[in-house]
């Protein structure tokens, strides 16, 4: 039963192979087994690739089965349509489109399996890319908030400097009126005279202004710090919101690109393996000598071709004979007086009716 199944997979005519030798049957059993197991590998590869896309086992398996069946049908068609000829060059030219198709199928099958085989290495590359994306994302988001935060910091520093300048001014006035009282500067008279009182009042007024300035600027700084804290919270919120997008950067295309970042030689050998598997049935038929099955198939096809050619010739002769008979029949009819008189009578009646109709129409117009 397994033998019949693999012969079915090879696309060969089971009835013809049934009358062939065991060696001939085994050749097509091997070709059919290769086609079948290639379809199995295609199913596995497609299922894994689709799972990375849909993240659902049932969906991936369902479409994987469809893809495996498609590859099975294509391979079976490719092998079954290659006919053995007497010239190898003719066979190679006949098989060249099928070889190109087999190469494309090998690429499609091998790539998802490469993704699975090198999964750990690909995960490492993806992790590095995700970290780079996360840093770049933070820098990009920061550019939206940095100007506003820089402006707030500048305003805070300006307010603090304003207070510091006022404190410097107050301290200077304090030193002035103390020096006046001690007689070190100003009038150089020891004691609290009128000049001292004037300078003391000026200092006290500046000190009151400093107290009010500190209170006002402190309130402004608190408000600016609140704005700065709010901007920082918005920045963190945007970073957190965009992070899942970066974390999910592990789809099929991302993994293929990550695979391309790895050394190419291991992937190339895996591709060669699947290319050999995919093209082995084709080259098996090309390199194998013309066997018993090929001769029987050629004999059956030649018999059908001869029969079709014979029927076409018979139809052509029949048609030519029919034309000759028709020409002779109508030629004899042209010599019969009775047929001539009958057609002359009918023609006379038709001409009369046409003349009457023309007369009535002209009379109506007048």
TrEMBL record:
Pfam families for the chain: DUF4407
Sorted UniProt keywords: Coiled coil, Membrane, Transmembrane, Transmembrane helix
Highest taxon, organism lineage: Bacteria
Protein name (record): DUF4407 domain-containing protein
Membrane-crossing segments per the record: 28-51, 57-74, 264-287
This protein's record includes keyword NAD: no
Recorded coiled-coil stretches: 149-216
Keyword Nucleotidyltransferase: no
